[in-house]
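name: query_chain
kind: protein
chains: 1
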Amino acid sequence: MDIAALSMNLSQMKVAQEASVSVMKMAMDLAKVQFIDLANMLKVNTQIMEQSVNSHIGKNIDIKI
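structure:
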């Protein structure tokens, strides 16, 4: 068995594994950002829906002196 070839193969496998882990971390970060954006969008949509259903609430203030 050629030790130099074995060493090169192990080194290439290590680089491939590190690349795979790096890509997986980037995908996880992207998924996290997309989830935060989706949650914010749902929050805004909920506020808009509430405002459209109860459009009279919060527009007038009754003040007596």
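note: Helices lie at 3-53.
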